[in-house]
Specification:
Length: 294
Amino acid sequence: MLLVRFGVVQESTAELRDRVRKVLRDNPLSQRAFAERIGLDATKLSKSLSGTRRFTPSELTRIAETGNVTVNWLINGSDEVETVAAVPRHSARVEPERGSPAEAGRYQQILDAAWHLIAERGYHSVRISDVAQACGTSAATIHYYFPGRDDLLTETLRYSVRLAFDRQVAELHTITDAYQRLLRLVELQLPTPGLLRLEWSVWMQIWNESTLRPELRVLHSDSYERWHDTIARTIREGQQQGVFVDTDPEELTMTLTALIDGLGIQVITDRPGRSVAGMREVLRDFVDREIVRD
């Protein structure tokens, strides 16, 4: 059965379950071990595969990450399908490891460890030996996948793009109302403790490095453009639904994203008087005052 949402054909959950089964078949882990890896009870995974339970957005995101696929592929059958979130440009995508499932798993393990270390310690404080220690392997193995330390930084940026894209597709593909979807997009961008705050840390380091290293600027621009386009298409859809004002969507997007960036930096650097709750309130007030039609 095919469903049409947001002008995009999306397949029913039966096809989604088939794709999850393919991920499980291609993965070297057993189904029980795979469930443990993604933090899901094996019984719940079985129920979701049988259709008596739906996968949650966070579960789909973890399945995609562990299985070296995208949420867009799980839900829509293709990495290229234009859906509720803009597809990353080719330069900003994580290229899948072309080896065996075990090699792909090792590559993902190294990338995830490097991403967390850079987010928590800072790029200039992370050495190849630190990544090797976190993965329980040798520095030579890290160099096999990532020849230099700078390669780790560029791939962690692409990894952040993938994480955000997967999360947005998983969270937003069932929200048909553009206003509610825009509010959810704002919520998904708040630097709340955990994954989102770590993503903000990586982005802030990329912003800094891009000012010093011109070779990073194209990748940074292409990565950021995906976020900009996701907001812009949501605003355009809200205008088509008659719930948003007719102001130029690009102008509204530029203002909203700049407000998110500025507030996010103040929150993550612990400026006195700034908080996630306060940031949420300011952003929702802006949406209601400047974007929603009276």
